[in-house]
Amino acid sequence: MLTTLGLALAVVVALGLLAVLGAALGLAYLINLPVGTSRRLPKAAAGLDVRAIARALDEAVQMTSGRLPSDIQVRVTEIRREIIELLPRTAAFPLGSEDLYVIERTATDYLPSTLRAYLALPEASAATLLPQVGKTPLQLLREQVQLLDDRLDEITEAVRTQDADQLIANGRFLEERFGQRAGGLALPPEESEGSIGPSR
Q1: What value does the CA radius of gyration of the chain take, rounded to a whole number of Å?
Q2: 17-43 tens-digit pLDDT
Q3: CA–CA distance, 81 with 139 (Å, rounded to integer)
């Protein structure tokens, strides 16, 4: 009986270790997403320096690798991914768009400046309470990175909403053009068997 209990306990422990290892590998994948986006740069809005943006984002991920808590490192990686994915869409942004400015400045200034300010501090001071704000440098970093990530989420959601609006408008056009009522995605009806050639 003791042997059976021991075997069962060993199985439980092994499964637990596998779960922890799986979670760790998943987190490592997110944190260590490949950099070097300059190899395949997307087209973007005129006047937007895509190479400078990609280079700044790569540097942000590289300089913080292994130097930040995992949750913050994941957010930095997520910010990089969001901006890279948004770049091709910026060509459709209106001239003087605030969102366009935010994307560029986040990549080349806001994010790098925030990270460098934190990394310049002595490591021991990360958890030291700053009396003037009542927070630690680590708490401030976490808040500031989250603020940048949340703003990019808003821009991404706005782009998705615009895509949905365009799809709806296209559906209405197709309904009017072909007389369909199936969301605008159905094809025109086929000709009857007795008809020959296009209708006139």
Answers
A1: 26
A2: 333 334 333 434 433 444 444 445 556
A3: 23
